[in-house]
Design brief:
- The complex is a heterodimer of chains A (405) and B (286).
- With 405 residues, chain A is α/β, with parallel strands linked by helices.
- Chain A contains 13 helices and 16 strands.
- Chain A is globular, with a radius of gyration of 22 Å.
- Classes of the chains: A alpha/beta (405), B mainly alpha (286).
- Chains A and B meet through helix 2, strand 8, helix 7, helix 8 and helix 10 of A and helix 1, strand 2 and helix 10 of B.
């Protein structure tokens, strides 16, 4: 009994001390005038950890390359792990803003985390550069600059290409059952339907599904299977598709912002990746400005080729540094916001410009894993599109697509 | 074979993987009263190390040995180094083993990186057999055979050997067993090693059937193993098999017909069992 009483007293004391310490940290640390504070939020753990770890490496690389200096001022960089969880994200973003005093945040990738943060950052007047595409509702918050655009917009060209160029007329779809996957797949299905194609089926499976046999068995006959699978589920799902002969019955296309073009994933998939057509906004072979140098530097730093999210994170940092340079180091919200709005920059993922709603006008590349020799993959570029999003009302968007290659 | 039959077969192969991880957990919980939350992480450890050895040596047998033994040794370290000092302190046991989940997972992140790993499949077991319009992998059928072989081995150990009799006596009445002069400590250590090794074995054997392993697999498999033990019953190899097959087949059938519910079905099964038969379908009554 004495021991239990002692433990409870200790717990109560711990809570009181934590509350007291927490209250002292509410006031943001005022940055020194010659210091710029940038925060990074990445999914370093959880089901999207494959994305966060490479994003972190890419942003650090970009900052190392400028010697942690921009516009004549030193950069202080703070990094936090969202845990692929919106609740954890809110704790971490408050720490970055209120304790560390960051003036700009890069990331996160997890959609629910970005949506949770947006109203807070708008209230605190801290600009947020998104790394990946996000949901249609996010542009309503003026604190977010969506460099990679909106989820459905990224994949709309894949649906168009499947109908117009690949000649498919019927499509079966399979995607993870969460918000981002739903909108990614939605864009591809819309592009296919707008072209005149027919969607015969759309199956959804929970994140972390172990056995895909029931979904494979339930596949309806179609010309093509469109898949939106993000994160760690890619390897088991595609391995099972391959093992169970899905490729014998229909072609497979990938519909998400990097598709299959994550080099470590390709190496794990091996033959299961060959022949698949996938849409991506960045891959290590893209002939964009500075990409060769970025790929070499990233490989020297990490030992692996950069995946899609590494490229997009690096591009986000390029945009951030360019904007800060143009403000002359003025990190007030108004100056940064104006500079970001006027971005007109060639990055490793292509040219970056924003619409009035701060949504990126982006490039989508349709490529194919043509062949494989050991760990070397031959990726063929099939088409390139420019996607311009247009807000038609509320959170409804239309995507204007122009094929440029 | 229609979708129902194919789902049944798929559920059995999935259930066997669940059995391999849950059997060890059930034995540890039944004999030692320890809830080893790091059990799922041991499954992951066996898989990752086994895949690494398999890919570097090209020998699947070595991969299985490496995965199994490494998980067993890791289990021994946890038991001898930590759990043995927390006898009858269940709350502390839970905290320590929960902490080991994070330690083992982050060690894997550090060593192997964040990307999932695809395992090698032995050449003899590659290929498919057409079943119900789907190419069903030969390896999955082999997993079913291996799983049942392991079950019969464990059943024989439990029911037909002196050690098995001691283990069962220890589960039923520890005080009486020790009162009769039987030293349960080496039995506990052996059982913990065996349980942990089974988890690692399940990891390296099961991963080729499901196509890959990632850093979330440890915690995902822990939830499955706990549900299987609840459904099947603690301390019984038969219970672990029945529970695993019930869960595996339920998930496969629900995924085929009502996919929106597939992530809930195993928890619904656990709740029903706890309400109707808390000792599990074939558990030892305490």
């Amino acid at each position: 009994m004495k021991g239990k009483k002692g433990i409870w007293m200790f717990v109560v004391l711990l809570v009181i001390v934590s509350l007291l310490l927490g209250s002292f940290s509410c006031t943001p640390a005022a940055p020194k005038e010659d210091t710029i504070k940038i925060g990074g939020m990445y999914e370093l753990t959880g089901f999207l950890s494959v994305l966060g770890t490479q994003e972190s490496a890419a942003v650090q690389l970009a900052l190392e390359q400028v010697n942690y200096e921009v516009a004549g001022k030193k950069i202080e960089y703070f990094e936090e792990d969202t845990g692929s969880d919106a609740v954890i994200t809110m704790d971490k973003v408050r720490k970055l803003v209120e304790t560390n005093g960051v003036q700009l945040i890069i990331g996160p990738t997890f959609g629910p985390s970005a949506q949770a943060m947006a109203p807070y950052l708008q209230r605190m007047q801290v600009p947020n550069l998104a790394i990946s595409a996000h949901a249609y509702e996010l542009p309503a918050y003026r604190s977010v600059w969506l460099i990679t655009g909106l989820l459905g917009g990224q994949t709309y060209p894949m649906g168009l290409y499947a109908y117009e160029e690949l000649g498919y007329r019927t499509m079966s779809a399979i995607s993870q059952d969460w918000s981002a996957a739903e909108q990614y797949m939605g864009g591809c299905l819309k592009g296919f339907q707008d072209s005149g194609g027919e969607i015969v089926q759309h199956q959804r499976f929970p994140i972390g599904t172990i056995d895909y046999t029931p979904y494979i068995a339930n596949l309806k006959s179609a010309d093509v299977l469109a898949s939106t699978i993000i994160g760690t589920d890619i390897v088991p799902s595609f391995s099972q598709f391959y093992d169970q002969g899905v490729w014998k019955k229909m072609s497979i296309i990938c519909s998400s912002e990097v598709g299959l073009f994550e080099p470590p994933l390709l190496m794990e998939l091996g033959d299961a990746a060959v022949g698949i057509v996938s849409e991506s906004h960045y891959n290590w072979l893209a002939p964009t400005v500075g990409n060769k140098e970025f790929v070499a530097a990233y490989k020297a730093k990490t030992g692996v080729l950069p995946g899609g999210y590494a490229g997009m994170a690096y591009a986000s940092t390029q945009v951030a540094l360019d904007a800060i340079e143009r403000t002359g180091g003025d990190m007030s919200y108004e100056a940064l916001a104006n500079a970001l709005d006027e971005t007109d920059l060639d990055t490793v993922r292509g040219h970056v410009k924003f619409t009035e709603q701060r949504v990126g006008i982006t490039e989508a590349r349709i490529s194919k894993v043509a062949s494989r020799s050991g760990d070397d993959f031959d990726i063929q570029l099939l088409a390139r599109y420019i996607v311009t999003p247009e807000l038609v009302g509320g959170s409804d968007w239309q995507f204007h697509v122009e094929r440029v290659e | 074979m229609d979708i129902f039959g194919l789902s049944l077969l798929s559920g059995v192969s999935l259930g066997i993987i669940y059995f391999l991880i849950a059997a060890g957990l059930s034995m540890i919980m039944g004999l030692m009263g320890v809830i080893n939350l790091a059990h799922g992480a041991l499954f992951m450890l066996g898989a990752y190390l086994g895949i690494t050895v398999g890919k570097s040596t090209g020998n699947f047998g070595l991969a299985v040995l490496a995965g199994t033994v490494s998980a067993g040794i890791a289990g021994l370290i946890i038991e001898r180094g930590f759990l043995s000092r927390l006898y009858r302190r269940e709350f502390e046991q839970i905290l320590v083993t929960f902490g080991f989940i994070y330690v083992i997972t982050n060690l894997h992140l550090w060593i192997y990186g964040a990307y999932p790993k695809a395992p090698p499949v032995p050449a003899l077991l590659t290929g498919t057999i057409p079943i119900g319009g789907v190419d069903f992998p030969v390896y999955r059928l082999a997993t079913i055979v291996i799983g049942f072989a392991v079950f019969f081995g464990l059943w024989w150990l439990q029911e037909k050997t002196r050690i098995g009799a001691i283990i069962q006596a220890g589960m039923d009445d520890k005080q009486m067993t020790t009162g009769l002069g039987i030293n349960l400590t080496p039995i506990n250590i052996g059982a913990f090693f065996l349980g942990a090794a089974l988890a690692g074995f399940g990891g390296i054997i099961g991963t080729p059937a499901i196509g890959g392993i990632d850093l979330n697999s440890g915690i995902n498999m822990l939830f499955v193993a706990l549900v299987v033990v609840i459904v099947g019953g603690v301390g019984s190899v038969q219970g672990a098999l029945v529970g695993a097959l019930v869960i595996g087949i339920s998930i496969a059938l629900v995924a085929s017909y009502i996919p929106e519910l597939s992530m809930f079905v195993m928890y619904i099964a656990a709740i029903l069992i706890l309400l109707l038969k808390p000792s599990g379908l074939i558990g030892r009554k305490s």
